């Protein structure tokens, strides 16, 4: 019962310790779960957006000696699934068997195959029987002639009706087929239709449709025998709802293993492993950022626990001295304290862990270990400080402040070792990079915290000198408030614990904010590169005057045509090799882009056109060269070299920019643009698309001589606005976790910074209370007492902001190569940038810290009953 009575007697101190331990346990579990949940949601969203050919695992049978499929291998679905490498079998959500031909030319009855016939695959897929609704005719019942059923959209595009007979021609043979019926899908969103949708493909200067026709088993056998083309396929759809980010690595290796050693007689067709590998790279980068932020937050929280434990030991120093005077051992002092902590701390840690576990998301594998460490720290911190207090010099009559102001050689050595360790950790991290195979890289966790602690140590040893100088100046002025406050602040070693915690908190917050502004700045530059106007219209080919029609639309101030020719053949003077690069042609004078003066000021008449090329391509070309653009060859000379150019993404390595206004383009063969840059405000995106598609239809009519409808366009016009592209950069799979990490990191850092200031005030409250009691007998007013606290705290807060700010701003530069920030900025070099609003946020936190300190000091003074201290001799 004595333990319970002591817990009641020291309820405030134990409650503070338990509260901080519970908060730390919550920070271990809750934010990590939320971040993991957002990462998992992003992964599932990314997988859900993939085309079926990319996300599904499709095994294709390998015919032996020209044999065609018997269309009777549906029973292998379960067998092949069971043979998949783990964990793939448990992730399969749906599976289909089909026997299918390669694309075949569709030849209507009474005609011959033209240069660009429509294409169709002939497919037998048993599961489609329950997924269709017949709107005309009936299901296929093949006899002597194979019968097919077709979708309404394919029937319209191919001009087919029930009863029509047509030919299918392939590489090895041909067959005659009859349309038995027309259907619509029961559920168009059913994944069984993902690889059967009607598509438009380019064929030279013309276009054609590509689709799938369904037949029965007899029809597949008959047609396959004549075509000599029918292959078994087994398609497995992975259920993204069962996939989590922590399984991406294992899933990627499993898909790669299935590709290397597929089941006998099959070949795997899927790009899921490459997609997952890219996502895994992004996940690791987010985990690295989260690890740095979480390490800084947890280090700050652990420091607060230690401060609370020290505060508890300092407040009970008289009790411990009495126990020692009565013959109690140091272990007795520690034992009674640990029994008190065991009553409240484990319960608080369990409550904090449970509160974090209630949040949606996925727990990290090491979460129980971290919670156990927090519980151990909360239980043992106070006993350890109590044991140290029992050996403290103050028991022998020595002044603790003088001992602190004269640090021992051992302490100076430890501080120097900490600085060297931090510098060495950052150097090694930059040199070796991020250990992607280590999960959460311990180097990456330790280096930022060590750097912040090293900054606090340097500040701790440097700050007394200017404060003492300022104190001497204040001593010459009228009034003692500034002198007394600065003198108290000058005893910085007495504030080493709060100062270190505050520096780590500010460094973590500013690191998070700097990374946020850096990523935002990189994404802004990426958007400016890819969409160098208010909007970009892209398509197959437009007529040369389409830009003029776009410019006449309401709210459009300027429209400029541009041609992007991927894989353009470039011949350089440096050698006979044929180079390929992205050729860009535009009127550099009127486009309004940031291009070299040699291009914007280029005029016609020269033998060679001035060009801007990428640095990599310039080294291969030499000084001059030729490039083929839409069938014509143009001579150019390199007038400028660039790292990037507006209109192309930052990852384009080889590009060539030509000023159209200086090119000898004949009137009878004008260039056909495929991009239009649009400037304006408030324009209608639908109108832009309509005018652009009209330009495409006219261009195709001029080329083919046939009238083309919108649905026949090989590439319908796409309008990408600058704002939409910039927003899309923040909507990728990992961005939810990234945004949460930034927000949670800055919020937690601000909260813990305020807490550290409050604990610093509580730690020095008794000593300041005695000083204020004596000064009040000399006429000190309550307002002057508050000013005294401000003079004492503001220099320390300012030093912590300066040291923590420098560490937080330098961290992204120092460890940026290990973080891979370029992966969040569409390949644009992230650089390092600082949002000026962060400075305002730090100042706001500093003001709040001072206000909180004044409130806590006022409450502490009331509890200490300063008016009776001198009269009763209380301490």
Automatic annotation (TrEMBL):
Gene Ontology annotations for the cellular component aspect, listed alphabetically: plasma membrane
Keywords of the record: Cell membrane, Membrane, Transmembrane, Transmembrane helix
Chain ranges of the ABC3 transporter permease C-terminal domain: 748-854
Main location class: membrane
Regions that span the bilayer: 288-309, 341-363, 369-391, 412-430, 442-463, 499-519, 748-767, 788-811, 838-856
Cited InterPro entries: ABC3_permease_C, Macrolide_Exporter_MacB
GO molecular function: transmembrane transporter activity
The name this protein goes by in its record: Putative ABC transport system permease protein
Keyword Cell membrane: yes
Organism for this UniProt entry: Actinoplanes regularis
Protein family: Belongs to the ABC-4 integral membrane protein family.
Keyword field contains Repeat: no
Family annotation (PANTHER family): ABC TRANSPORTER PERMEASE YTRF, MEMBRANE COMPONENT OF TRANSPORTER-RELATED
Membrane disposition: Multi-pass membrane protein
Cell compartment(s), UniProt: Cell membrane
